[in-house]
Specification:
This is NDP-hexose 2,3-dehydratase. The protein is an alpha+beta fold. About 15% of the residues lie in helices and about 35% in strands. The radius of gyration is 22 Å and the shape is globular.
Length: about 450
């Protein structure tokens, strides 16, 4: 083998991606939950289960926070205890890092095809419970493996709809002289180009964003187009808080309000009912549970049916950022959701569903929500709409915003929030299990600013 200085000749990214759209037939149709093949409502609990006993279940969840006697949340939840793999393969062509990315169809994607990691597979997928095709490139992410591991951590997924769901986020770099055959639905994408694609709505999927959040930003070349030097701290600048203080703040948040999660039969959720082929809140709510019938060329299995969570509106996740003492900082929040794996995770400055904080009953209004909503265009550094996990959520979109905070934002910060540097936040991500998926998506977007 010889060292490859440039990636194999290929059409421009957009030309390649459009070609992949037309390469396979994809169709997703609504289907009543009681008509799903292999799925049924359990006769005793009302839980939605698969006949194999694998994949996932839809159950009831009641979550209590602190000393409150009533449930703060009472809703259906996806229970999927198995841990999947989200892995990006990296190779340097010359000295330039490239990521092997996949044009992948997911039934919940609003535009069907999005850019996913090299490997995006549940354990049921890669152990072939469904008797489907093998997962390409899996051998690079399972032991014994070739290549250098750059990242390998367990990360949570959406706590609003999953109960304690985690995936293994991995980045593995292969040697420049290793020959990695590139299949039709895959492409080497330069890391800088991949990050720039995050500015395009609904293109880079959630699984790619969460893995990319663990990759430190690459300092831009002097005079590089499209960068504004946000990551270039003043030579004598320093963080507002040291890492020991931040770890103490985080530990205090996790211990201050215990989170009690109780799985209950789906049939016991009095405010939820099955009607018109779907599971919905009697008075309307942030989501419903629907069924879909899927035909997908290029997938491990070409046809299947499944339940999905379908949000009734678009979410909002936002960071306020500013330089403190010459160093870029991000304002983060200690955030709790009904299915959070470990009580509290580090979340965005503002995280809302349906234009309010994601909470059943009365909204707990964020003190920074209006600041994000009314930010002048000159203060908005990033603004794009991205899809959430398309394998379990149907047309779930979140608007991701990064806005420059005014000089008054550093004062009177509530105990629920704290300023940390981008480097410190990336460090928490690389520890695993500390930063929620919305904040990780925002961090990946923040890395595009240069």
């Amino acid at each position: 083998m010889t060292t490859t200085a440039v990636p194999p000749r290929a059409p421009a990214f957009q030309e390649w991606f459009e070609a992949r759209k037309s390469a396979h037939e994809h169709r997703v149709r609504p289907l009543a939950l009681d008509r799903l093949d292999g799925w049924r409502f359990h006769e005793d609990t009302g839980n939605l289960v698969h006949r194999s006993g694998r994949f996932f279940t839809v159950e009831g969840l009641r979550t209590y926070v602190g000393e409150e006697s009533r449930a703060r949340w009472s809703r259906p939840v996806i229970v999927q205890p198995e841990t999947g793999i989200l892995g990006i393969l990296v190779k340097r062509f010359g000295s330039v890092p490239h990521c092997l990315m996949q044009a992948k169809m997911e039934p919940g994607n609003i535009n069907t095809l999005q850019l996913s990691p090299t490997v995006q597979a549940t354990r049921s997928n890669y152990t072939r419970v469904h008797q489907g095709n093998r997962v390409p490139y899996l051998e690079h992410f399972t032991a014994p493996r070739r290549g250098r591991v750059l990242l390998d951590v367990l990360q949570s997924e959406q706590g609003a709809w999953f109960l304690g769901k985690r995936n293994r986020n991995m980045i593995v770099e292969v040697q420049p002289d290793e020959d990695v055959p590139v299949l039709d639905d895959f492409r080497w994408v330069e890391l800088a180009e991949l990050r720039s694609l995050l500015h395009t709505d609904n293109l880079v999927n959630m699984d790619s964003r969460t893995v990319l959040s663990g990759m430190p930003p690459t300092p831009p070349a002097a005079g590089a187009a499209g960068t504004d030097g946000f990551f270039r701290p003043a030579p004598d600048g320093r963080a507002r808080h040291d890492t020991a203080y931040l770890r103490s703040w985080f530990t205090e948040a996790r211990t201050a309000n215990p989170l009690v999660q109780r799985r209950v039969p789906l049939a016991d959720l009095a405010d939820w009912e099955y009607r018109d082929g779907r599971l919905a809140h009697r008075q309307g709510g942030p989501f419903t549970v629907i069924g879909v019938d899927v035909e997908a060329g290029g997938r491990e299995v070409p046809h299947w049916t499944q339940p999905m969570v379908a949000p009734t509106g678009r979410g909002l996740a936002a960071f306020l950022v500013r330089r403190l003492d010459g160093v870029p900082h991000v304002l983060v929040k200690a955030h709790t959701e009904p299915g959070t794996f470990d009580t509290v995770e580090i979340g965005p400055t503002v995280q809302c569903a349906l234009g309010r904080d994601d909470r059943d009953g009365a909204a707990e209004r964020s003190p920074y929500l209006d600041r994000i909503r009314t930010a002048p265009p000159s203060a908005v550094r990033f603004d794009a709409v991205h899809s959430e996990e398309g394998g379990r959520f149907h047309h779930a979109e979140t608007r991701y915003v990064i806005a420059e905070a005014g000089p008054d934002a550093e004062h009177d910060v509530p105990d629920t929030h704290v300023w940390m540097t981008v480097e410190q936040l990336t460090g928490f991500v690389r520890c695993g299990g500390h930063v929620n998926v919305e904040a990780r998506s925002l961090l990946a977007c923040l890395h595009t600013l240069g």
